[in-house]
Write a structure and sequence with these properties.
Number of helices: 14
CATH topology of the largest domain: pyruvate-formate lyase- activating enzyme
Strand content: 15-25%
Number of strands: 21
Largest sheet: 7 strands, mixed
Radius of gyration: 23 Å
Number of domains: 3
């Protein structure tokens, strides 16, 4: 710790943009600064150091990051410094300063733990030129994390990062260029952090990485994610919900399925971005193109894990996507009846193989295909939600709000907002419950209504027919024939 830092007690403002993985990095940056004697504040005008942890994945995210940095540079006071951190910084480096003149520092994704060192250098610089900290490679995951908790706690939920980087060859994605290759954190480090989170009262643990199913490959582990789950379940038995995010198709193994089916703590929820449902499109994407594997694996998953909820994402309008290929995607979605689908229109990314592919799809066609896909999925999601009416679900209560009628007028009633095992934070739906329930608690509720994305419920008072997440067989289970 710098003596000067502990005496000065400089304050920092940290704006985190992008995905949950970026949020974890932001929390880690904050911990490093706190350990170094600095203090975080919520208003930029109250800080000496202004940091934006940027996102550089798609154009809209890049624009948001650039605009946030530009605003801080233009409105800062004389004694303030502005630092760009994160994915946009790693991807564009010195070019970012050309786009945003006045930036003081740029630090990338691979040495976030050096943030205080950069702040110190900026304090001591003799000339106003910006300083950069952008090593090409820095395989320090699990080795030089400065003792910080690699998690982001949000209410009763916590995102826990198990690996960083990616070694997949997806033609549309710049993440390997930004983050580097996949590097797994040691099992013992992750498990120890799960125990810490359990002691903090966390009720839901979300395992995240660019590709969680690739966990342990670089450590020489086979079925590394399954082994990690077994370790967490044994070490932190009082965390009731463990959720798997960002699984890669083709790597959801039978061992992983068995682990999910066996342990009550592991929610019957799987986030598996498939990106498309036609073989030829997937080949151009450089994604797994074995469509039969998806059909077979979905069948096995639903047989082994009753009440399984599957979320996936698709890209429409990928270069070369024909009417026939798009029709194949629609059939794929209709056949497999996913619980949740996120859809995106293809975004041109400089420096990725897809940027040089021929036959880019017109924007109006992309928009029309997006709307057609979402209309199909909305009908599927509504049907699957309606199948839950009359059943009882456990929900994790997140907070309260004021009730409204159909015209948006306040009714004077209190509504509790919660999520079931089928709902990951921020990306899925909610369960709206009449009355005021305790935030952070898991409460059984009876489903009384359904919309396309959300469920409506009342507090369970009678003997419930509970849908029990993570239990392989038992009373109250909904057969798949009742849902699909």
């Amino acid at each position: 710790m710098s003596v000067r830092a502990s005496k000065r007690q400089d304050k920092y403002f940290l704006l985190s943009l992008g995905c949950s993985k970026n949020t974890v990095d932001s929390e880690s940056i904050a911990q490093v600064l706190n350990q170094s004697g600095m203090r975080g504040v919520t208003a930029p005008q109250d800080a000496e150091v202004l940091i934006v942890n940027t996102c550089g994945f798609i154009n809209a995210a890049k624009e948001e990051s650039v605009n946030a940095l530009r605003e801080l540079v233009e409105t800062r006071k004389k004694n303030q410094m502005v630092i760009a951190a994160g994915c946009l910084s790693q991807r564009y480096g010195a070019n970012l300063v050309q786009e945003i003149p006045g930036l003081d520092g740029v630090i990338g994704t691979r040495r976030w733990m050096d943030i205080f060192d950069l702040v110190t250098r900026l304090r001591d610089r003799k000339h106003p030129e910006p300083l950069y900290h952008l090593p090409d490679e820095a395989h320090v995951v699990g080795l030089d994390e400065r003792g910080v908790l690699r998690a982001s706690v949000q209410g009763a939920s916590a995102y826990l990062k198990i690996a960083d980087g990616c070694r997949r060859p997806c033609a549309f994605c710049a993440i390997p260029k930004i983050k580097g290759t996949a590097v797994s954190r040691p099992i013992e480090s992750i498990t120890a952090e799960a125990v810490r989170l359990q002691a903090m009262g966390v009720k839901e643990l979300l395992l995240i990485a660019q590709d969680t199913t690739d966990y342990g490959y670089d450590l020489g582990l086979k079925d590394g994610l399954a082994h990690l789950l077994e370790s967490i379940v044994q070490a932190a038995p009082n965390i009731p919900w463990i959720r798997i995010m960002y699984a890669y198709p083709g790597y959801v193994t039978e061992k992983l399925m068995e682990t999910m089916a066996t342990h009550k703590q592991i929610l019957p929820y799987l986030d598996m971005p498939l990106q498309h449902g036609h073989r030829e499109t997937l080949k151009r994407m450089r994604r797994p193109a074995n469509i039969e594997w998806v059909y077979n694996t979905m069948g096995k998953l639903r047989e082994m894990i009753p009440n399984l909820a599957v979320r996936t994402t698709f890209i429409v309008g990928y270069p070369g996507e024909t009417d026939e290929e798009f029709a194949g995607l629609l059939k794929f979605v209709d056949d497999l009846q996913f619980d949740r689908v996120g859809a995106f229109q293809y975004s041109y990314e400089i420096g990725t193989p897809s940027a040089t592919q021929a036959n880019h799809v017109d924007d109006d066609i992309k928009q029309a295909r997006y709307e057609q896909l979402m209309e199909l999925q909305q009908n599927i999601s509504l049907k699957r939600n309606q199948a839950l009416v009359g059943k009882t679900l456990d929900i994790l209560v997140e907070g309260h709000g004021a009730g409204e009628d159909e015209d948006g007028n306040a009714t004077g009633d209190t509504i509790s907002l919660g999520r079931s095992y089928r709902d990951a934070p921020e990306i899925d739906g909610y369960v709206l419950v009449e009355g005021e329930l305790p935030p952070g608690e898991i409460v059984p509720v009876r489903i009384t209504g359904a919309t396309t994305y959300d469920l409506i419920a009342t507090v369970e008072t009678s003997a419930p027919q509970i849908i029990t997440p993570g239990t392989k067989y038992g009373a109250g289970m909904i057969p798949m024939s009742d849902i699909s």
